[in-house]
Amino acid sequence: MTQEELRERARRHPFEPFRIVLTTGATYDIRHPDLIMVGQRSAIIGLTDQPDGMVYQRTFKVDLLHIVGIEDLPVSSPPSANGPTA
Fold first, then answer.
1. DSSP letters along 28-61, please?
2. In angstroms, how far is the first alpha carbon of the chain from the final one?
3. What is the model's pTM?
4. Tens digits of per-residue pLDDT, 24-83?
5. The CATH number of the domain covering residues in 3-72
């Protein structure tokens, strides 16, 4: 994975959540653009305990050479403002 590919995906407008897959089989879900910072040879991933959290509790550094894939994640739709149907 190149820095340009990962940066482009992380900064896409509108943002689309994605999953990073590593050579070890580990995966990291990126649900907000503030939870990833792409560098020249590595990326810092912010980890949150909340499924839709935007502020990280801890970070994980991954070498770009260990990223073997990126997968789309489903976009959660906001709840209806009209309330439940009867």
1. EEE-SGGGEEE-SSEEEEEE-SSTT--S-SEEEE
2. 50
3. 0.81
4. 999 999 999 999 999 999 999 999 988 888 899 999 999 999 999 999 998 765 555 555
5. 2.30.30
